[in-house]
Amino acid sequence: MADDADAPKESHASASSALRRGAGIAALGEVGVLVVGFAGSIIIARYLGPADRGLLAILQVVAILGVSLFGLGLPVATQYRASQDPGLTPRLIGNGLIVTAALGAVAVVVAAILVATAPDLMADPPDETVWFLAAALVPVTILDYLTSGLLGAHRRFARKTVLMTAGRLATLLGAVLFGLVADAGLAGALLAVMAAQIVMIVGGQWLLARGGIGCSRALLCESYRYGIRSEIASLLQVVNARLDLLVLGAFAPRSVVGIYAIAQIVAELVGLVPNAISTALMPVISSGDGDARTSAGALRLNGTGSIVGVLVVAAGGPLLILFAYGDAYREAIVPMLILLPGIWFLSMARVSGWLLRALGRPGLGSWLAGGEIVVMITLDLALIPPFGATGAATASAIAYTCYGVSALIAVSRIEGTPISHLILLERPERAALAAGLRSRVRRRSVD
Q1: For the chain, which residues make up each domain, given as ranges?
Q2: What phi and psi values does residue 425 have, to the nearest 5 degrees?
Q3: CA angle 439-441-444, nearest 5°?
Q4: Nearest 5°: CA angle at 218, between 212 and 221?
């Protein structure tokens, strides 16, 4: 009986340890990606200027929306199924490659149509090369998502971290070569952006495909059944995070869009914490490890870490914009500061969304994200035309807050945990975290 009583505690302790370890490795990777990635981002922003940087942001958002809309949740479903049964990986890879090829073909056709019609639809359209490179972003992005998700499912957090960092180095090198040296303009910036994704794809698939590559129609259909329910939430999350930028593009010059894109990039530095936790959360929960305490602990860890992130970005963000991106992006400071409180709530919604997917409840996340869309659209249309980037930031901050609160309520009811126990690390957890950090520092100093 004693053994039976202790089993859940051991399971919870093991799951929590796996979660902390995976999140820790992912967080270190996020820091590495952050440092290297920002160098490339700064070079690209300074080289392009606000107007072309705004167009680059719009092209990236459209590509991500294309993946979310037409990928039908395959990346998330692939990670979910591989977390449950790693033996499915060869067939999951093959299915992913087939879907990637199909999406790539569709994207090329769309690019050809845009090449023919863009001069009549927009002022000062980019050249043909830009449209086709933007189309290439769609298959490259979905394959990047698939590879990254499979690495997470196999808990190859260290390998994923190395590839993410190497990818940002490739973007930095690409920004210098294609931008500063070759002066390839927006096309060069797109090549630099895709360099990071290509590194993840090549490095990750080289490891994952060692067991072979297959395909399975039944598995693909099963993945889509799960993925479609999940992708509604994912698509809405992407729209929620980037809708303001697209609406802003309809009412403001590209230079304003570029300035606001930099405000988003700096404010979303806070996302380092939820990204790291989400990376570890899906495989730990989907595999059947852990319980409600593990889920609550993940949210508390995110809540505490994200508050620290908000304070750090609020203090250092303005300096980063002024001295790194340059005076041309000075007007990004106010929108960035307005976004920050809402970013904390968005981080809680993101972790909650991944938690709901891992628990097999992706549909609920879709309903929550759908409700937020209504708030976002209403506020964007009301605030962006008169206030521009500041209005977009205000609308986003309010919508993120609504989303975060509703997601916390949902998790609280499903897990039977009071919301007050989902926000911040409790005293024993803070003490254990501090002790662990001190122990690691001591070990490194001895080494």
Answers
A1: 8-437
A2: -60, 140
A3: 110
A4: 110
Task: Please answer whether residues 200 and 147 qualify as being in contact, where contact means their C-beta atoms are separated by less than 8 angstroms.
Answer: yes
Using alpha carbons, select from 409, 419, 410 the residue that is nearest to residue 362.
410
Instruction: Compute CA distances 85 → 79, 88, 222, whole Å.
Output: 10, 6, 14
Q: Are 304 and 424 in contact (CB under 8 A)?
A: yes
pLDDT in tens, 46-56: 999 999 999 99
Distance of CA 247 to the CA centre of its chain: 21
Q: How far apart are CA 234 and CA 375, in angstroms?
A: 17
- How many angstroms separate the CA atoms of 381 and 369, rounded? 18
**Tokens read off for 184:** 């390839």
At a CB cut-off of 8 Å and minimum separation 6, what does 78 contact? Answer: 92, 95, 96, 146, 149, 150, 153, 223
Decide if 205 contacts 90 (C-beta within 8 A).
Answer: no
DSSP state of 181: I
CA atoms within 13 A on the CB side of 158: 1
DSSP code for 271: G
Query: Cα angle vertex 373, ends 369, 377, to 5°?
Result: 165
Helices 254-267, 217-251: inter-axial angle, 10-degree rounding: 120
Burial class (CB in 10 A: 0-12, 13-18, 19+), 39: middle
Q: Classify residue 198 by burial, with Cβ atoms within 10 Å: 0-12, 13-18, 19+.
A: middle
Say how far apart CA 156 and CA 22 lie, in whole Å: 9
Q: What is the pLDDT of residues 272-282, one digit of tens each?
A: 665 655 555 44
| Residues 6+ away with beta carbon under 8 Å from 113 | none
For residue 180, the Cα-to-chain-centroid distance in whole angstroms is: 28
Residue type, 201: I
The answer to whether 19 and 300 have CB atoms below 8 angstroms apart is no
pLDDT digits (tens, 9 = 90+) for 98-129: 999 999 999 999 999 988 887 777 777 888 89
For range 223-246, the mean pLDDT:
72
